[in-house]
Structures are given as structure tokens and as C-alpha cells.
């Protein structure tokens, strides 16, 4: 049976001004490349056009010897939708009001799903380097979860997830937020202690 394996990795830790990977982010990406090298050969890397994802993708491509890199604006960070109010703290409610985008993020996520959550005509292995919100939304969609499920996941820098897509079958989520290749001091740096393990 033809199989499309899509692996997702969140960009590494970064600085905002100017936006670029931090030294920790580059180390996370190098360790992630080592983990990926032990798996199936990757045919191509699709990546967000934002600098932190582009730099992560380039580092992974160099480490893995992959020359087929494909920038995709649909993979840029966005707000996929506004979660139900009862799921949000007061601070989160204010953040979503400030970052509301009139559904542009949801439209981009639909576009991304049509690219990365459908079977292929031939066996292929792809790596998608993107952002927490995007990956969480794509994984929740692949799992057939409800519209708020993307928001109810934590996702670490350079964590790996995987989905298998086959003709006439539902997507199969194989892994979510796997950060076992990173030492504890490089996992979940942008989360509070309550969301780190």
C-alpha cells in the first residue's frame, strides 16, 4: 500500500529581534537532525517562510544532506481559530482579541491541510518545519478532534510528530510532541514548569 509519512518539527528556540535561532535553538535542531537520521530517508522538507522556521529547516537539511527545500507561506505562524471562552484564562482571552485575524489563519490552515494531510500517489517521506499553532492544528485535524483540540496541546521547540496518510484510510497519528532526543534542559523552554517533563 502506498504510504505518505509526514513528520512535523517545530522550529528551535529563537530570539525575536532580529528573529533568528538562538544558540539553544541551533543545538535543538542539531539533536533533532541526529534523531531524524536514524529514521526513514526524507525526500523533501517543506517549511514556513518565517526566519526561525527557515533557519531550522536549513540546519536540518544541511545535517541530513537534503537539497529539496520548499518554502510554504501556509505554514507560517497564525491563529487557527479562537477556542471556546471557557478554555481560556482572562489573559488568553485578551491575547486572542488582540490577535484576531478575521479567519485568515483558519483559511491558511485549510490550505495547509490540503497539502500535508492527504495521501500521495507514491511512497514518500516529508518533513514539515513549522510553528506550534500550525502543527497542533494539523495534528488535531488528522486525529479528527474537535475545533478546540489544537489549543489543548503543548508543543516543544524541535519536538517531532508524525502522521501516516494512505489511500482510502483515515490519517493515522503516530507520534505527538516527541522530544526524547533532547536533554531535559533543552525541552519545553518556552513553557512553565507545569508543562515540562
Would you mind describing this structure in some detail?
This protein is of the alpha/beta class. The chain contains 5 helices and 8 strands. It has helices spanning 23-37, 51-64, 90-98, 104-116, 132-142; strands at residues 4-10, 14-16, 19-21, 44-47, 69-71, 124-130, 160-165, 172-178. It has a 6-stranded mixed beta sheet. A two-stranded antiparallel sheet has the order 2-3. A hairpin with a 2-residue loop joins strand 2 (14-16) and strand 3. It is globular and about 45 Å long. The N and C termini lie far apart (37 Å).
Give the strand line-up of the largest sheet. Answer: 5-4-6-1-7-8
Main structural class: alpha/beta
Low-confidence stretches: none
Biggest sheet layout: 6 strands, mixed
Number of helices: 5
Radius of gyration: 16 Å
How helical, in percent, are the residues? 25-40%
The average pLDDT is 94
Count every beta strand, where a strand is a DSSP E run of 2 or more residues.
Answer: 8
Based on CA inertia axes, which overall geometry fits? globular
> How far from one another are the termini?
37 Å
Strand content: 15-25%
- Give helix and strand order, one letter per element, not per position: EEEHEHEHHEHEE
Amino acid at each position: 500500500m502506498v504510504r505518505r509519512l509526514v513528520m512535523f518539527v517545530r522550529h528551535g528556540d529563537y530570539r525575536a529581534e532580529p528573529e533568528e535561532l538562538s544558540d539553544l535553538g541551533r543545538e535543538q535542531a542539531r539533536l533533532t537532525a541526529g534523531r531524524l537520521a536514524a529514521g526513514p530517508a526524507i525526500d523533501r522538507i517543506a517549511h514556513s517562510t518565517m526566519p526561525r522556521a527557515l533557519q531550522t529547516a536549513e540546519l536540518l537539511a544541511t545535517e541530513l544532506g537534503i537539497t529539496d527545500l520548499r518554502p510554504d507561506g501556509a505554514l507560517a505562524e497564525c491563529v487557527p481559530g479562537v477556542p471556546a471562552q471557557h478554555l481560556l484564562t482572562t489573559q488568553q482571552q485578551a491575547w486572542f482579541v488582540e490577535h484576531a485575524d478575521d479567519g485568515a489563519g483558519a483559511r491558511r490552515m485549510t490550505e495547509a491541510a490540503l497539502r500535508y494531510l492527504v495521501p500521495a500517489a507514491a511512497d514518500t517521506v516529508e518533513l514539515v518545519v513549522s510553528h506550534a499553532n500550525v502543527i497542533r492544528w494539523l495534528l488535531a485535524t488528522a486525529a479528527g478532534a474537535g475545533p478546540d483540540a489544537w489549543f489543548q496541546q503543548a508543543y516543544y521547540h524541535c519536538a517531532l510528530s508524525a502522521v501516516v496518510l494512505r489511500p482510502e484510510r483515515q490519517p493515522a497519528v503516530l507520534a505527538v510532541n516527541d522530544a526524547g532526543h533532547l536533554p531535559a534542559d533543552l525541552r519545553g523552554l518556552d513553557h512553565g514548569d507545569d508543562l515540562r517533563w
